[in-house]
Specification:
Number of helices: 12
Structural class: alpha+beta
Number of strands: 15
Radius of gyration: 34 Å
Shape: elongated
């Protein structure tokens, strides 16, 4: 039995890895430089940060350049082997030509393991650092836009300025950064592109603060702009002086949570288990929690009036407000009060005195706009009679009413799955609630899309790793069969299939959220083609050489 050529394998493997290192370093440096040029040109990075950005980009770019580096190294090493007739010498010694492919296959497998480990463990952390360099400094974004003569966009406003100067932060007031703008014009656009409002001022002060929003674990950058001596107008109005005006606040989004590709393997599994960690899901989860809270509040108010003839609220100032009515019905987001024999009665007991009113009609409108405040209700009374001969009022509105047992905090703390189950139970009792059904459908759609995004990104990482094996094997087999021609000419026979595979992997990942079956077929189709070509070329090695 012929002994395997271990010594030759070791020599060939060393040559392949030397070429892999050189090729990967050159390709990755070029791609990382290209990635850092755009944010530097747009003013989002300063030169020092641009160098750091490019240095960080070396690691994530490696997952795209590694397959090509493995293929190029396999081509050069095996092309040298055939150009010096070493393969013929090995064959004369009884070594099958397919056996020569072992170093290339093992190199591709090692590269696959490295790429998979980087993609699942290291690259997400590096991408976060890169994203932080570009997005953390909203002041730099604004200054860069001013210096380029472009508009900076925040919260639907476009801001132009002639000049920008960076001031000193005021940590005592929580101001992390400060800018002074001169010759300022700001306008608000509608979704259709029309100007809703515009304002101009000689000078403006932009304040950036780091604030933790209700229910959020991480602080966000908040931008406010104070214009002094401003003139402005709204759509359809004449230009006029507005004096000092504050525009904002605008929350600068934190891009870390937005994409599954910025999560490690373990974090992706946790994100799939707790989808509310994703901002797009959490926004819809909160919307569904508010919708459920409004309906539960309406149920409690209606049940209290139907059973006891009254509903009790807090007035937001430590007092108590009691409403007596003959009946109540929840309709179109409000609670319509039915007068009793004496109409609708209201008793407001405060710290100083007690006030009693009587009305002929009334409505309670709950609202859950701010989760930090809970559900607030507005009581509207029509045809109000006051005691003591006071003149009647056609309409009285009492806002800011609270409930003793507010359901909103408890609902906000529930997981996405628990809220979905709660909404389904509610819809089973009231299937005609179109608004709640729409909120539930919107949340379920976004959760499904998130799971598909996670699937697509996870499969993309494995596919890029698998491509390394087959590209290296295909390149080596092609180089062994095609004896004539330059190394670059021979490399093209494996380069274009490798390029097509990388393109289909990226395209398939983007298609998975919309159509998982088609996306996964495209994503793995290029890898399967590479695998088929490499196996065909390896089998052909027993046939004649191609001159």
């Amino acid at each position: 039995m012929q002994r395997p050529p271990r010594r030759y394998w070791r020599a060939l493997t060393g040559e392949v890895w030397r070429l892999v290192g050189v090729t990967a370093a050159v390709l990755t440096a070029i791609v990382a430089f290209s990635a850092g040029v755009r944010p530097l040109a747009e003013g989002r990075l300063e030169p020092a940060d641009a160098l750091r950005f490019m240095g960080l980009a070396l690691i994530p770019m490696l997952q795209f350049t590694a397959p090509f580096a493995a293929g190029f190294a396999a081509t050069l090493s095996h092309h040298r082997l055939v150009s010096e007739n070493e393969d013929l010498a090995l064959e004369a010694a009884g070594v099958p030509r397919r056996t020569i492919l072992a170093p290339a296959a093992l190199t591709g497998l090692a590269m696959a393991l490295i790429v998979a480990a980087l993609a699942h463990l290291a690259i997400p952390h590096v991408l976060r650092s890169m994203q932080a360099l570009v997005t953390r400094d909203a002041a730099r974004v604004l200054i860069g836009a001013v210096e380029r003569g472009e508009a900076a966009h925040f919260g639907g406003f476009a801001i132009h300025a002639d000049r920008a100067i960076r001031g000193e932060p005021d940590r005592a007031r929580g101001i992390t950064d400060r800018l002074f703008l001169f010759g300022v014009v700001a306008y608000e656009e509608t979704p259709d592109g029309e100007i809703r409002a515009e304002v101009a001022a000689e000078r403006a002060e932009v304040l950036l603060t780091s604030e933790r929003r209700p229910g959020e674990e991480r602080p966000a950058t908040v931008v406010r702009m104070l214009l002094r001596g401003a003139v402005g107008r709204r759509q359809g109005e004449a230009l006029g002086e507005v004096g000092s005006v504050t525009i904002g606040p605008w929350v600068v989004p934190d891009a870390f949570e937005d994409s599954p590709r910025l999560h490690t393997f373990g974090e992706l599994r946790e994100l799939a288990r707790r989808p509310q960690m994703h901002p797009a899901v959490d926004v819809r989860r909160r919307a569904l929690a508010r919708a459920l809270a409004l309906r539960e509040v309406a149920d409690r108010v209606v049940a209290g009036i139907e059973s006891e003839g009254r509903a009790v609220f807090g007035d937001g100032r430590g007092g108590r407000l009691t409403v007596w009515a003959g009946g109540a019905e929840a309709r179109d987001g409000a609670i319509e009060l039915t007068p009793g024999p004496g109409g609708i009665s209201l008793e407001r007991a405060g710290a100083d005195a007690t006030e009693t009113l009587t009305a002929r009609a009334g409505r309670i409108t709950p609202d859950a706009g701010d989760p930090a405040e809970g559900v607030r209700a507005t009581l509207e009374l029509i045809g109000v009679q006051r005691p003591g001969g006071a003149p009647p009022s056609q309409r009285v509105e009492i806002p800011g009413l609270t409930l003793a047992d507010d359901p909103l905090p408890g609902l906000m703390s529930r997981s996405t799955g628990a809220l979905i189950e709660r909404a389904r139970e509610r819809l089973a009792r009231d299937p005609d609630d179109a608004a709640l059904e729409a909120a539930l459908a919107d949340l379920q759609w976004r959760v499904r899309r998130l799971h598909r995004e996670i699937l697509g990104n996870d499969q993309q990482r494995w596919a890029l790793a698998a491509a390394c094996v087959f590209i290296a094997l295909l390149s080596a087999a092609v180089a062994l069969r095609r004896r004539q021609g330059g190394a670059l000419q021979v490399y093209l026979w494996s380069f274009f299939p490798a390029l097509a595979a990388v393109v289909t992997i990226s395209g398939g990942e983007n298609a998975v959220p919309d159509n998982p079956a088609v996306g996964l077929a495209v994503l793995w189709g290029g890898v399967a083609t590479l695998a088929g070509l490499s196996l065909i070329e390896a089998r052909r090695l027993s046939g004649p050489m191609i001159p």
